[in-house]
User: Which sequence fits this backbone?
């Protein structure tokens, strides 16, 4: 019986891989088919992050240091966030589209197909291409050098884990918003608020904000674990208000996993409450 | 035979926030939310034997789609029992999904930007269809539904008829035991409709697939279904054959008379005048009360007649009466 169960697991794991492979094959095909669109997006991505970084540069030119952070360090802060965020976008972007699917009524299709609903959402053939991630990687390498971060074995081992943590944090929050849309079909405002909060609070060191915001960023919507706490660790910064231990940032994957577990439970509960658009 | 679909006292109540008109109403809603409950489906009990083709009809908002969504596992019932192929659909969504295929006429299941072929490939992976079976099914559907010409066209460029054929193939590739068709012929031209109907019949007869068909086009029902289930305001009004329904409601027939010259107020014993215009008149009469030939003889004896014809009630007018009058035909049928 044990062997049979194990065998079934392998078969179903192969099924999951097949679906993932098909979804990616289709993504690559559409990327090749709509080359112009791809390059326009790439240009847009570069412009978007370029403007954001330039704005940070201007701010730091006027105030040479923000709560003790200089431009080089803030460039690294931004790079760390960008790495996690763009990896999330590449693999899990369509979770953010769930409220739209619910509103349009196309969400039903996931419920009549024999795979986990979240897995199906994640493997929707969308047009997320690895351009942003490539850009993030380049900027991250540059920023690491630029901010004089010591590249030792701890750094090399920790960065993938922090990126994983960042992906899970981003994913948990889009999953929560998605689940809320099962109860209240229209969640555009919530989506917008959450997106702006992330953008706003991952750009600057959290220590510049007031206590309430710091607690929100650290423990309620734990964006601070995507970049701020890890950067505090790598750059040997001190933050007496929030950082209980200097290596708090290394807990990003743990925080991400906890958050994801909670968000997934909420999502499951929401699925059973799903009413659709009622037509 | 053990039914493949079974519901008992199935009920679905939707709870929504109540909206008050105007800004004042919106502000009040911020502080106290009021909920309104609407009963979409109440006490629906039915059984469908494997391999049958059942028409499920009712006016807009009657609860058809809600029932279908509970049968397919999309919605969780408020109370009652629902079972499809031995499973409770919403509890075992994934397993249930392997047994069913779904075509929603208003919402395509296909991927907008992909050619049909790619959508099918993705579905093959999602359903784990063995390659041999996949090839056979695809070949059969491409031939029957004449899809060869547009298999590599992105779905968004397809005509409605082509897209619909694609949706049918997509719903059937994994050999489902039950298919749910929600308005599968909506918006199609006559030729396309007929092609789809023929395909449905073929799937039902040759593959033995159980078909639940929701439609507003009663021509679909007359062409395809022996049994129909009528729902209105969430409750079942009728569950039986089309013929029985026609017998019960088809008691009133109509006699159309064209007189040689205009008759302002013609009368015949045993029939009531419904409409008259110049030399044309329409009478209603009961099948049980008087036979057609006696009636025609009576008209001909009193007036100079050029032409007569008899109209049998069609399904459409019967259903219209049921919707409008809201009487349950089951009551009419019950002796």
Assistant:
């Amino acid at each position: 019986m044990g062997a049979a169960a194990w065998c079934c697991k392998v078969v179903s794991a192969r099924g999951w891989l097949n679906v993932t492979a098909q979804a990616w094959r289709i993504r690559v095909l559409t990327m090749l088919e709509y080359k112009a669109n791809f390059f326009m997006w790439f240009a847009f991505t570069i412009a978007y992050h370029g403007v954001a970084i330039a704005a940070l540069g201007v701010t730091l030119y006027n105030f040479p240091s923000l709560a003790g952070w200089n431009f080089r360090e803030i460039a690294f802060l931004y790079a760390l966030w960008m790495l996690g965020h763009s990896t999330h976008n590449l693999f899990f972007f369509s979770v953010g589209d769930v409220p739209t699917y619910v509103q349009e009524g196309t969400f039903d299709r996931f419920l009549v197909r024999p795979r986990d609903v979240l897995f199906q959402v994640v493997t929707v053939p969308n047009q997320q291409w690895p351009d942003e991630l490539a850009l993030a990687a380049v900027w991250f390498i540059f920023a690491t050098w630029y901010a004089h971060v010591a590249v030792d074995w701890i750094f090399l081992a920790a960065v993938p884990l922090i990126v994983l943590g960042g992906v899970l944090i981003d994913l948990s929050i889009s999953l929560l918003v998605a689940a809320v849309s099962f109860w209240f079909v229209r969640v555009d405002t919530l989506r917008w608020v959450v997106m702006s909060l992330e953008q706003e609070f991952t750009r600057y060191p959290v220590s510049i904000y007031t206590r309430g915001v710091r607690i929100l960023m650290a423990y309620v919507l734990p964006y601070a674990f995507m970049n701020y706490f890890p950067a505090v660790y790598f750059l040997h910064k001190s933050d007496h208000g929030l950082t209980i231990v200097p290596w708090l940032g290394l807990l990003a994957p743990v925080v991400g996993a906890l958050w994801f577990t909670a968000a997934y439970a909420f999502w499951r509960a929401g699925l059973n409450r799903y009413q659709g658009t009622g037509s | 035979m053990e039914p493949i679909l079974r519901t008992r006292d199935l009920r679905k109540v939707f709870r929504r926030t109540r909206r008050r008109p105007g800004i004042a109403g919106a502000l009040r809603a911020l502080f106290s939310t009021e909920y309104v409950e609407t009963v979409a489906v109440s006490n629906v009990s039915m059984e469908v034997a494997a391999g049958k083709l059942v028409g499920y009809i009712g006016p807009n908002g009657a609860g058809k789609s809600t029932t279908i969504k509970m049968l397919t596992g999309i919605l969780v019932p408020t109370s009652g029992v629902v079972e499809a192929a031995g499973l409770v659909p919403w509890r075992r969504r994934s397993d249930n999904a392997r047994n069913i295929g779904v075509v929603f006429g208003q919402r395509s299941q296909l991927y907008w930007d992909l050619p049909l072929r790619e959508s099918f490939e993705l579905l093959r992976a999602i359903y784990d269809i063995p390659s041999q079976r996949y090839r056979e099914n695809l070949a059969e559907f491409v031939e029957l539904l004449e899809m060869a010409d547009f298999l590599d066209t992105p779905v968004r460029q397809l005509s409605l008829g082509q897209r619909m054929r694609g949706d049918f193939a997509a719903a059937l590739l994994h050999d489902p035991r039950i298919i749910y068709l929600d308005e599968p012929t909506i918006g199609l031209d006559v030729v396309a409709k007929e092609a789809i109907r023929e395909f449905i019949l073929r799937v039902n007869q040759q593959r033995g697939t159980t078909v639940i068909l929701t439609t507003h086009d009663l021509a679909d029902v007359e062409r395809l279904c022996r049994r129909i289930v009528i729902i209105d305001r969430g409750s079942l009004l009728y569950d039986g054959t089309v013929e029985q329904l026609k017998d019960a409601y088809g008691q009133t027939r109509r006699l159309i008379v064209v007189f040689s010259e205009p008759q302002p107020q013609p009368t015949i014993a045993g029939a009531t005048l419904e409409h008259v215009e110049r030399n044309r008149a329409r009478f209603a009469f009961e099948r049980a009360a008087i036979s057609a030939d006696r009636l025609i003889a009576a008209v001909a004896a009193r007036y100079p007649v050029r032409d007569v014809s008899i109209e049998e009630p069609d399904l459409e007018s019967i259903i219209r009466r049921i919707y409008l009058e809201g009487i349950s035909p089951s009551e009419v049928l019950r002796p």
Q: What stands out?
A: Chain B is about 35% helix and 30% strand. Chain B has two domains: 3-246, 251-312. Chain B has a mean pLDDT of 88. The interface with chain A takes residues 14, 16-17, 40, 65-66, 69, 72-76, 90, 93-95, 97-98, 100, 102, 104, 107, 109, 111, 113-114, 118, 121-122, 124-128 of chain B (CB under 8 Å).
